[in-house]
Amino acid sequence: MSKVHTTPEIKIMPEKWNYAPHVLRLENSIIREILKISSKPGVISFAGGLPAPEMFPLEDLKQSAVEMIDEFGSDSMQYSLSMGISHLRKVVAERETRLGSPTKMENILITTGSQQGIDLCARAFIDPGDYIITEYPTYVGALQAFNFYQTRYASVEMDENGMIVEQVEKAIKKYKPKFIYTVSNFQNPTGITMSEERRRTLVEIASKYNIPIVDDNPYGEIRFTGKAMPSLKDIGGEAVISLGTFSKILAPGLRIAWINASEKAMPIFERVKQCADLNANTFTQYMIYGYMRNGKLDGHIETIKNNYATKKDLMLREMANNFPKGISWTKPEGGLFLWVTLPSDMSAKKLFDKAIEQKVAYVYGKPFYPDGNSENTMRLNYCTASMEMISEGIKRLAKLLRDNMPR
After folding, report:
1. Which of 38, 69, 160, 254 is the most exposed place for a label (fewest CB within 10 A)?
2. Which tens digit of pLDDT belongs to each residue from 180-219?
3. What is the CATH number of domain 19-56+299-403?
4. Is-contact 254 288, C-beta < 8 A?
5. Using H for helix, E for strand and C for coil, what is the string for 245-286?
6. Does the global pTM surpass 0.90?
7. Domain parsing of the chain, residue ranges
8. C-beta of residue 202 within 8 angstroms of C-beta of residue 180
9. Is there a contact between 84 and 237 (Cβ–Cβ < 8 Å)?
């Protein structure tokens, strides 16, 4: 009788694999986690950074998709250059020039969303333990990207005119940062816009120490009111690395954005881009090129500006009519967000579960601070919800705040 050999059972435990310690310290995106909760039936969400889906120009994009397949055939589905397809880089450069920043195609690198632009800047500059300067608070997605590279932060406070740039030179001397990261237009999370005077001062200081400014500018064209001002790129030229995106002015699912930087820096960015994903989505690059070539983008931006401005005004009116005294908020001139400040002894994080019980959601402010030291703030998005949902959602949130105000 032959002997039967049995293979001993081997238990695989992926949870105990030897992951890099800094990866184990990473936290999930609080916004993505909140989106899971706020997607429950009946919850009115002001939480995400999502543009209004009903504003996506689906028919025009469908037309462009067909045109690009007919015109470019298999090239539209092939690998493409790491810098991006030349057709799109050229029209983006032309548009940047028309908007005030003289730009050549050689200054443009196409990225997989603006989040990748942030990540490529981190890859290009940061070694573990390096400092960067950020606003306080700042975009939580940028903090996630920077934290992966074990960054340290020299944070600069804000007021109604944006980053208090008088603090920047002192921070440069003390921390020797690799770059300055800012969201200068309709900042995420606060909705605040940096004044022109401070923009010019910031460029002067950064240039003095040869430190690049990374200007994350997804909202710059979504201005509703107030005076348009020159971008940091307009003012600073080669001193500024500007990040632009089609996510907020067209559709985020296309995952196409760009870096506008000195031609001298582009070999570095091209190499780090190749390490990340070789090239951005070829087909969606062609789709956007066709859409822009057909002259659709400017009119579409005007349409979303009108829609978002109406929603923002409604949210501000409802807050003024319903929020209890002792609470303040920003009044942005554009973008997607406004920022609410509660009394110092209230915690927006602790209130969040109660808000979900009341079927309204927001993003509490703590994750937007590099040191996590703020409890009494929250971010509201006025773009995604309908007008009816904004009115009802703010009333629900106001009741929650009234019921939990300190006595």
Report:
1. 160
2. 999 999 999 999 999 999 999 999 999 999 999 999 999 9
3. 3.90.1150.10
4. yes
5. ECCCCCCHHHCCEEEECCCCCHHHHHHHHHHHCCCCCHHHHH
6. yes
7. 19-56+299-403, 59-296
8. yes
9. no
